[in-house]
């Protein structure tokens, strides 16, 4: 019952509202230390295949493990993400976790985003290797109610999940940020593994040369 006067009763019906113009936004959370072509292919393939309005790259402020040494100041990671997505109208950056600082649980971040954008459906995109870890995510049962998870199948990982998930098949490359950092330390080329601007930035700023980065 939504309104009542002396002579008129208006009742809600089940079919009254159709959300035809809800926005559909993909989110890729990560450390992006550094961003690489694997991330970009993932984002592009899911965005296109699901017909999303945008895919946002959401760098975290701090690595999930406090003792993780493999991180550099967030401003560098943010800059490299900006360089990576430049010129692609499907891509954008979501800086909410960087602005909040410290460790953010995905559930808390997504709650904030959903509250700020009630007209949006969120698709949380993860690599197939991450799907098996979903049960360990903070308040995962609540999170799966809030966002639609999208997993991109990767070689060697089964398309299985304890949670509702949309599986997307896409050609992926086996690149990881960890591997890129190791290559830089040992003087190997990262050409074609990261966008050219990111490669230039890393070399100009002298990133990942020290053992504890
Ligand atoms: P690291 O090697 O330091 O763990 P990473 O390369 O996995 O880093 P993250 O920033 O941790 O990068 O990853 C963000 C998201 O991108 C995760 O969901 C991860 O599964 C996905 N991802 C990372 N590399 C690839 C890749 N080569 N292909 C597809 N998805 C990827």
From TrEMBL:
It catalyses: nicotinate beta-D-ribonucleotide + ATP + H(+) = deamido-NAD(+) + diphosphate. GO terms for biological process: NAD+ biosynthetic process. Its EC number is 2.7.7.18. Pfam families: CTP_transf_like. Keywords: ATP-binding, NAD, Nucleotide-binding, Nucleotidyltransferase, Pyridine nucleotide biosynthesis, Transferase. InterPro entries: Cyt_trans-like, NadD/NMNAT, Rossmann-like_a/b/a_fold. Residues 27-182 form the Cytidyltransferase-like domain. It comes from the Bacteria. Pathway: Cofactor biosynthesis; NAD(+) biosynthesis; deamido-NAD(+) from nicotinate D-ribonucleotide: step 1/1. It is an enzyme of class 2 (transferase). GO terms for molecular function: ATP binding; nicotinate-nucleotide adenylyltransferase activity. Belongs to the NadD family. Catalyzes the reversible adenylation of nicotinate mononucleotide (NaMN) to nicotinic acid adenine dinucleotide (NaAD). This is Probable nicotinate-nucleotide adenylyltransferase. It comes from Trichococcus palustris. The lineage of its organism: Bacteria, Bacillati, Bacillota, Bacilli, Lactobacillales. The gene is nadD.
């Amino acid at each position: 019952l939504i309104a009542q006067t002396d002579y008129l009763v208006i009742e809600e019906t089940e079919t009254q509202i159709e959300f035809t113009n809800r926005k559909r936004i993909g989110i890729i959370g990560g450390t992006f230390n550094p961003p690489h072509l694997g991330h970009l292919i993932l984002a592009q393939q899911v965005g296109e295949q699901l017909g999303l309005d945008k895919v946002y790259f959401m760098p975290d402020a701090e690595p999930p493990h406090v003792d993780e040494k493999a991180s550099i100041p967030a401003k560098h990671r943010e800059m490299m993400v900006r360089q990576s997505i430049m010129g692609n109208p499907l891509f954008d950056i979501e800086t909410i976790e960087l602005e909040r600082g410290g460790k953010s649980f995905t559930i808390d971040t997504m709650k904030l985003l959903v509250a700020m954008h009630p007209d949006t459906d969120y698709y949380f995109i993860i690599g197939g290797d991450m799907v098996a870890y979903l049960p360990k995510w903070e308040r995962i049962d609540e999170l799966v109610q809030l966002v639609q998870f999208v997993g991109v199948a990767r070689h060697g990982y089964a398309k299985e999940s304890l949670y509702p998930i949309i599986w997307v098949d896409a050609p992926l490359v086996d690149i990881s940020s960890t591997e890129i950092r190791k290559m830089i330390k040992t003087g190997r080329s990262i050409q074609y593994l990261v966008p050219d601007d990111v490669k230039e930035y890393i070399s100009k700023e002298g990133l990942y040369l020290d053992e504890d980065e």
